[in-house]
Amino acid sequence: MLEGPLPYGAIVRHIRDNLAPRITVDELAAIARLSVVQLSRAFRRDHETTPYRLVLDVRLHHAANMLRAG
């Protein structure tokens, strides 16, 4: 089970470093050293979202920044 806070920063860094390739929830769970189920529960509890939604949000934010930059 999760001991301590979810390593949210490390997960977001991994997503930002890998915007183009497919990112699996298994990868994110491995970063957090949790099972996929534990990670999903922790995300819902702590951030009111899912790991997959976070991947989409980070990618959309990046795309919006690129469009603003021209």
Summarize the structure.
It contains four helices and no strands. The protein has 70 residues and is an all-alpha fold. The termini are far apart.
Radius of gyration: 13 Å
Total number of beta strands = 0
Structural class: mainly alpha
Distance between the termini: 45 Å
Uncertain runs are none
Could you give a short account of the major beta sheet? none
Order of helices and strands: HHHH
In what range is the share of β-strand residues?
A: under 5%
**Number of distinct helices:** 4
Helicity level? over 70%
Overall pLDDT level: 92
Characterization of this structure:
By secondary structure, this protein is mainly alpha-helical. The chain is 70% helix and 0% strand. The chain has four helices and no strands. The longest helix is centred in the C-terminal third of the chain and has 19 residues, at 51-69. The mean pLDDT is 92.
Summary tags:
0% strand, single chain, elongated, 70% helix, 70 residues, 4 helices, mainly alpha
Element layout with pairings:
Blueprint: H1 8-17, H2 25-32, H3 36-47, H4 51-69
